[in-house]
Amino acid sequence: MSEPLEGRPAPRRPLVDAVCGLLAAASALAAAELVAALTNPAAAPLIAVGGAVVDLAPPWLKDFAVEAFGTADKPVLLGGMAVVLALFAALAGVLGRTAPRAGTAGVVLFAAIGVAAALSRPGSGPADALPATLGGLVAAGVLRLLLRASAPAVPGAAPDEGEGSGEEAAGDGPGFDRRRFVMVAGAAAGLSAGAGAVGRLLAVERVDVEAVRRAVRLPAPASPAPPLADGVDLEIGGLAAFFTPTADFYRIDTALSVPRVDASTWRLRLHGKGIAEREYAYADLLGRADLVERDITLACVSNPVGGEYVGNARWIGVPLAPLLREAGVRPPGEGGPADQIVSRSVDGMTIGTPLEDVLDGRDAMLALGMNGVPLPLRHGFPVRMVVPGLYGYVSACKWLAELELTTFDAFDAYWVPRGWSALGPIKTQSRIDRPRSFDEVPAGDLTVAGVAWAQHTGIDRVEVRVDGGPWQEAGLAAEDTADTWRQRALTVRLEPGDHRFEARATDRSGRTQTGARAPVAPDGATGWHSVSVTAA
Q1: β-bridge partners, 23
Q2: Three-class SS of residue 131?
Q3: What angle do CA 79, 81, 83 make, to 5 degrees?
Q4: What are phi and psi of 439, to 5 degrees?
Q5: Which of 43, 257, 290, 467 has the smallest number of Cβ neighbours within 10 A?
Q6: Mind giving me the DSSP string for 345-368?
Q7: pLDDT tens string for the chain (536 positions)?
Q8: Sheet strands side by side (includes 486-494)
Q9: Residues 6+ apart with CB under 8 A from 263
């Protein structure tokens, strides 16, 4: 009874077969990562496919991801992809046993998706197809090997120690050589782990970009930031500090892995309508005599009302207007042929900035440093753009590689075809930091504090109201510049019970922010921020 009858099909072990598929997929990813480390780390299948998913995702899905997961949207995406891949691999393993052709087709599809995604990335070349191609071959070979190792024992052969009646009595048919399978599976897992580790090490060690960054010494700026006025930071507990710590500064972009750019070989290309092409090395920018230091608040267009995708930092960099003027750039108002600067990142991201805004006297710059140190890798090292008064999606290109003078009619930057406005002036906003919604606070006097911003215009007044009552003007902290946010506070007396606070700001042009709610797309959210608390 324990031996299969003549012609009886091999028993199915879906769990074992699924494990075979998972190990084959792990081996494929490890091999692909190792090859990508030697060619182009961005061509690794998970990164390439993830980038393609980000590009193809509809705007509403991206908005949901940012709103639901914030700056953790990228780990969530990669984790979701890993789950989908694991399910796909497990299915391929099961099919590899029962329907070998279907299992092989699954492996081919796996490789084809990786190749297509890698070749679709900006700046890709034929070599970028190698990681996914080799990964597919490794997956096919490992899957075949593991399925053979887990095949049922030959009828009449002595079972391996520990096998026999228990498994057969369970109705699972003849056993397989567990020892052989464990050895083969362990070898596949070990080699995969080793290849993946070597690949990650090579990707980092090809150029120790962090070491290059740490060796950079920022020159003293020719135009330092003005000294901070007394009282610019109210230093109230729970209120955002005037300067956002670099570790807490928001990061919203489409890069699934932070680009690692070697500043020693980096070049910035400047070209386009009406100018002769120029090229700048990192040392060229560091060595310029017109470096400036400025305090500038940046805001993301995806920031919801009351959100935290806004931060204030001290930047040092090359003023952009003089650099462009040296190359002969003229705004449309002076007869220039271009009205848009398209900045391109090393990862292919394109951002379109109105040329008139860059040349109108504001402190637009090619930033080299942030809060006193060279730009961190995640914030754009070696060079990024900073333009006060514009949302980041039309101004703040990180890991900058190219500036092209063109027109809005001739070119749509990355976000425009995806439903966002081509122009992105920052809207006047205010936020309540203290108290937080659903806080329980003591009855009596309570300080309601927060920040407001209207970059390149300045904040003139902030008002707070309690439970829909009259607006009360809050006390403003001293202003640093019109390009930075401004703190404010108001002390109110609360009776026991539930209470609701709202805040609104008026900028220096006389515009008071609207209470009408609008989503972040296509050009920034509107509405008054409100919080609800219980006083006891």
Answers
A1: none
A2: helix
A3: 70
A4: -65, 150
A5: 290
A6: ETTS-EEEEEHHHHTSSS--EEEE
A7: 334 434 445 556 888 999 999 999 999 999 998 898 888 888 999 889 998 888 888 877 877 887 788 778 888 888 888 899 999 999 999 998 888 888 888 889 989 999 999 999 887 889 999 999 999 999 999 999 998 888 875 554 444 443 433 333 333 445 567 888 888 888 888 888 887 778 777 765 556 888 999 999 999 999 999 999 999 999 999 999 999 999 999 998 888 889 989 999 999 999 999 999 999 999 999 999 999 999 999 999 999 999 999 999 999 999 999 999 999 999 999 999 999 999 999 999 999 999 999 999 999 999 999 999 999 999 999 999 999 999 999 999 999 999 999 999 999 999 999 999 999 999 999 999 999 999 999 999 999 999 999 999 999 999 999 999 999 999 999 999 999 999 999 999 999 999 999 999 999 999 999 999 999 999 999 999 999 999 99
A8: 429-434, 444-453, 486-494, 475-476
A9: 209, 212, 213, 216, 282, 381, 382
- The closest of 521, 519, 476 to 232, measured between CA atoms, is 476
What one-character-per-residue DSSP string does 412-454 give? Answer: --TTGGGT--S--BPPPEEEEEESPTT-EE-SEEEEEEEEEE-
Q: Are 94 and 108 in contact (CB under 8 A)?
A: no
| Closest by CA position to 375, among listed 364, 386, 388 | 386
Between CA 212 and CA 178 the distance in angstroms is: 50
**Which residues are CB-neighbours of 384 under 8 A, at least 6 positions away?**
366, 367, 375, 396, 397, 398, 399, 400
The pTM of the full predicted model, rounded to 2 decimals, is 0.82
Nearest to 149 by CA among 96, 104, 113: 96
Within 8 A by CB and 6+ apart from 424, the residues are 301, 390, 391, 393, 394, 395, 523, 524
Q: Which residue, 315, 318, 268, is CA-closest to 291?
A: 318
> How far is Cα 463 from Cα 63, in angstroms, rounded to an integer?
29
DSSP secondary structure code for residue 394 in this structure: G
User: Which amino acid is it at 124?
Assistant: S
431: which residues sit within 8 A by CB, 6+ positions away? 306, 307, 310, 450, 451, 452, 503, 529
**Spatial CA neighbour of 429 closest among 362, 350, 495, 517:** 517
How many degrees, rounded to 5, is the angle at CA 454 between CA 452 and CA 459? 65
CA nearest neighbour of 513 among 499, 497, 524: 524
d(CA 464, CA 472): 5
* Residues whose CB is less than 8 angstroms from the CB of residue 348 and which lie 6 or more positions away in sequence, other chains included: 121, 122, 123
Sequence-distant (≥ 6) Cβ neighbours of residue 416 within 8 angstroms: 352, 422
What are the residues whose beta carbons fall under 8 Å from the beta carbon of 448, sequence distance 6 or more? 432, 434, 435, 464, 474, 489, 490, 491, 492, 501, 503
**What does the alpha-carbon distance between residue 369 and residue 352 come to, in Å, rounded to a whole number?**
22
